Amino acid sequence: MRNMGLLILGLLLSAFFGSAQESNSLDEPIGLNVGDTVTFFSAQNQFDSTFVLAEALADGLVIVVFYRGQWCPYCNRHLSELQENLELIEERGATIIAISPENQEGLNKTKEKSNLEFTLLSDENYDICRAFDVLFVPSKADVKKYNAFLRADLENAHSNENILLPVPATFIIDQNGIIVWRQFDEDYKQRSTVEEIIKNL
């Protein structure tokens, strides 16, 4: 009887870990879900100093926004909208951080294009994107298009030589490190709205 119980437990654990591995795929990212606990991370910001998530959460909610890079017009528009409403968001005790795989030069270009005052982070080696399960491999055709028409220069813009991109997504994290709201859509044109973010703070 005991052996049967151990067998069932083993099968359940195998199924759990197997499904977890499948969900964290570069082919089919699904993003962390509401109720998930995030991995506490640190990263370099646009001022070349270290941002520590645990320290930011001590002051209140943190809104994590993933964007593709300074070359992406949809990303710049989205970040500009957040900047325009930054005061409303901060009045509710929340902090915005925006994360991309781009290096410091890319962060500075993003900051200048949209006159951003909130924190931008460089996700070196794609560690944060991978932890949030938003990372995917763009097609060769898309890479050529981004480089040719949007001057993305992806081979040199990222801190890692691999060419990977995040699904643009937004997560609201409470002070316990738990996701309380998210917007995740593989269609890069679909972004979180300021109204949705404020409603869920």
Structural description of this entry:
- With 201 residues, the chain is an alpha+beta fold.
- Helix content is 40%, strand content 19%.
- It contains 9 helices and 9 strands.
- The protein has helices at residues 2-23, 53-57, 73-84, 86-91, 104-114, 127-131, 140-149, 154-157, 194-199; strands spanning 42-45, 50-52, 61-66, 94-100, 119-122, 135-136, 165-166, 169-173, 179-184.
- The strands form 2 sheets. It has a 7-stranded mixed beta sheet. It has a two-stranded antiparallel sheet with strand order 6-7.
- β8 (169-173) and β9 (179-184) form a beta hairpin.
- The longest helix has 22 residues, at 2-23.
- It is globular.
- It starts with a helix and ends with a helix.
Outline:
Helix content is 40%, strand content 19%. The chain has helices at 2-23, 53-57, 73-84, 86-91, 104-114, 127-131, 140-149, 154-157, 194-199, and strands spanning 42-45, 50-52, 61-66, 94-100, 119-122, 135-136, 165-166, 169-173, 179-184.
Keyphrases for this structure?
201 residues; alpha+beta; seven-stranded mixed sheet; two-stranded antiparallel sheet; 9 helices; 40% helix; 19% strand
